[in-house]
Amino acid sequence: MAAAAATEAGLEVARGVADELTQLIPLAPLTSALGEAGFALSTARDIPGPADQRLLLLEDLQEPLERRVAQGPMLITLDDVQWADPMTLLAVRSLTRDLASSPLAWMLARTSGSGDAPRLDRLFRLLEREGATRIRLDPLDGGAVAEVVADVLGAAPEPDVLALAEIADANPFLLVDLLEKLKSEGGIQVSDGRARMVSTRLPRAQAVTRARLDELSAPTRHLLQVAGVLGRSFSVKDLAEMLGESTGDLLPMLEEATSAGIIKSAGYELAFRHDLLWEAVTGTLPTAVRRALHHEAGEMLLKRGGSAVPAAAHLIRSASRGDAWALLGLDQAAREVLRSSPQTAADLAKRALELTDPADPDWVGRAATAVDALTAMGRLSEAADLVRPALSRASPRLAHRLRCALAYILLLSGRPADAVGEAESLLSEQDLSDDLRGVAEWTVFWGLISLNDLTNGQRRAEAVLADRDRHSDAAVAGALLMLSRFAMVDGRVADSFAHLNEALRIANSGTVEAIQRPYARLLLSLNYRCLCQFDAADMAIQTAQEDIKTLGVTVLAAQPALFRARVKLAVGRFDDAVAEAQAAMMIADDMGTQGFIRVGLSILAYIDVRQGHIDAAVGHIERYLSQPGAPGMLFGSAWERWVEAVVAEARGDLEGAMDILRPTYTDKEKQRWTLITVPLGAAWMTRLALATGHRPYAETIVDTAEHLAGNNPDYPVFAAAAAHARGLLRQDPAALDCAAANHPQPWERASAAEDLGVLLAATTGASARKQAVDRLDQALDGYQRVGALRDAARVRARLRALGVRRRHWVQPQRPAFGWDSLTDTERAVAGLIARGMTNRQAAARMFLSPHTVSTHLRRIFAKLDIASRVELACIVAEKCPALLRDS
User: Fold this and answer.
1) Helix H or strand E segment including 560
2) How far apart are CA 585 and CA 596, in angstroms?
3) What residue stretches are annotated with the HTH luxR-type domain (predicted)?
4) E strand or H helix at 13, and its extent?
5) Of 64, 10, 9, 54, whose CA–CA distance to 33 is shortest?
6) Element at 74 (helix H, strand E)
7) Per-residue pLDDT tens for 43-59?
8) pLDDT at residue 393 is higher than 80
9) Could you tell me if 859 and 550 are in contact, meaning their C-beta atoms sit under 8 angstroms apart?
10) Beta bridge partners of residue 194, listed in sequence order
11) pTM of the model
12) Edge to edge, what strands does the sheet with 74-79 contain?
């Protein structure tokens, strides 16, 4: 009815249905709704290695769908989503969020108590949280029953007729079936516009449904039983092949079943008219017969060639332990969907393992497939638990592969020391293949980077580069990344860039494992951001994002948004930083890489402190502390540890903040890396040390900051940071003035101006007081421009102590709604979307993630109180037509 109403209203309607026997096929319900021509599945793309194609599949869905709905409003209905495959649930989650600003409506229908209930319940909760309406269809009430009865019988029902609802459990289908049966047999009399029962003997509703089947001829019943095994919907070709008949021979039976209301046409297939009829048909089959028919269906589909996934749906229901034919089919299906739906691949591989005798040599290969799938999904502990028993049974060659996988799993699990140990043990094997040796050596280098074990890393990297010909490109690239990190921490920025660029040159040659290229690009962006070269950082992040998607390195999917959040934070665009951090956390949650949620929470906590939301910051830190470490730990722990200290200081716990950072104060390498990755860390840590009476700690921070500045005269951020820290330690107004004038980041300039104002305010004389007020005004303006409300409030309090009162905003505050409420980024997004760009096109133009563009659009629509892109285009044309012109 909803689809019909939508069609009458002029909406394009796409209908899809999930099926218990198609839930192994990635995106089957959406493919049935949109048509296979609606998007080009990325499974056809030739991507080397164990690439995870989920990001590409989502893009292949979103791009054409976004263009399609741009032509007019659309409704997508998906029925029986309790049987939807994991990739479909992920796509629904992503598309409903990213196309929320498009004229696209969704209607999802499910039953309870079947299918993947936990994952589906989670999806429905998320959709409700974002504004979806959940409608629970309870049994028909008395009024609804009366309307149904009156509609079917054409007369008002007497109480004895209404009692039929109890027999049918108030189920509409069963009630109508029962009424029609009784009406046709004369069991209901209609007179004077009233309907009453003729007999007091009432059949059970299910018996009526069964009777409908019993009235069919024996050949038709047998045909329906085989059709029921093929699924709720089925191909006539498959049915004919299963029965060993021609399609023409089936026509009389199909016509009988259709006339009896058992089956109906469903596009290119036939389908049972209702689940209850399908269940009634399959329920007539003994379990042994049903299993045998599923086995025959699986064999038929396998022998036909092509995809093994449809066959696997039957084999998984019929295979017995040691069934070699069925197990080979499950193996093939698991390998097919490994890239597009690792959840399904894991389910198939684990089911095959259950059916495999432990002594069977194929058990280890099946375990390896399950390990790959579980790793891609982020279910790392399960993957590790499966590797260990497999190692004891594997051949040396397969054992090497599994140990290499285990080292990588440990690295992703935030256990770099264990990863290094496993990889080094593997490297001691004499018969290790060159490709696995390269991966293992790269893992060692990345583990040492994650551990900040730069001394051992440098020694090992120099040994590799001194004898390049004996090492793979993967090992050489890993050594260069190691030396790049060491040079950066050592304060030799130019050397760091040289090593990174050479590693990227090797990675771009195509001879290195795919995962290494995005890692190298993200490190490059980190270097650029540390040096406040923000445009270059954005470009490196954008390239890394494309690599992650096209190479299938889904484990890093959330990283570009996290790196971009830090860039936005550095330039003082707090709203954009929040949007990127939230987008990253959603991606991490969607793709199963929950470790990155921790990094996002640390970013949100820091912004909350700056904006004065201390309770919210504490909440983020508490949640952060309960999360596992970030996979790969590209940020390292320096940023996160520093944010913990910032939140502790904001709560007034200065000693707690000092305890958190004590290892950094006492370790030169940790100091250098912290001061490089957190440019304002030098001044902040100097101030904290002085406030807690630890002047020697303050002096060592200043020494490290000046070492970095002296080694890198071409990068002014180091000189400005050192001047700020030195000014605090030495009470040097000239140094603070230098930092306030020259630091490339706006919050840091404001902080230096505030510190200078405080120093001058403590000096006697009218001139010093005026200078103090001027500097505090400079700080107030800087803080307010970036939205650092807590810092601005502190400066206003300092000004009041000097007898000066300032308004909360030097400039008028942005309103909550209307065009003037939009931020600069939101206006830029509005302009690009108004020009007809898709979310992805706008994201590429603005160096944002598509998820972030979607977040901005939702905010724009709320602020402008609109519901369509057409309305947005009209507003942009009226308020700022310049945005519609290409720049």
Assistant:
1) helix 559-570
2) 7
3) 815-880
4) strand 12-17
5) 64
6) strand 74-79
7) 434 444 456 888 888 88
8) yes
9) no
10) 156, 191
11) 0.81
12) 12-17, 74-79, 104-108
Structure tokens at 590: 């969607």
DSSP state of 36: G
DSSP 491: T
Residues 6+ apart with CB under 8 A from 766: none
Compute the half-sphere exposure of residue 872: CA atoms within 13 Å on the CB side of its CA. 30
Give the position of tokens 């996934």: 309
pLDDT 10s digits, 115-140: 567 888 888 998 998 888 988 877 77
Question: Measuring CA to CA, which residue among 92, 76, 64 is closest to residue 11?
Answer: 76
| pLDDT category of residue 113 using cuts at 50, 70 and 90 | low
What sign for the dihedral angle of Cα 595, 599, 605, 607?
A: negative
Scanning the structure block, which residue is given the tokens 């909760």?
Answer: 125
The model's pLDDT over 694-723, given as tens digits with 9 standing for 90+, comes to 999 999 999 999 999 998 898 999 999 999
d(CA 600, CA 594): 10
Q: With b meaning 16 or more CB within 10 Å and e meaning fewer, what string describes 704-736?
A: bbbbbbebbeebebbbbbbbbbbbbbeeebebb
Residue 340: pLDDT band with limits 50, 70, 90 = confident
Question: Cα separation of 549 and 453, whole Å?
Answer: 30
Sorted by sequence, the CB contacts under 8 Å of residue 39 that are 6+ apart come out as 60, 61, 63, 64, 65
Per-residue pLDDT reduced to its tens digit, 473-491: 888 999 999 999 889 888 7
> What are 666's two structure tokens?
């006492």
**Residue of 398, 500, 506 whose CA lies nearest to 449:** 500
Neighbours of 498 (CB within 10 A): 15
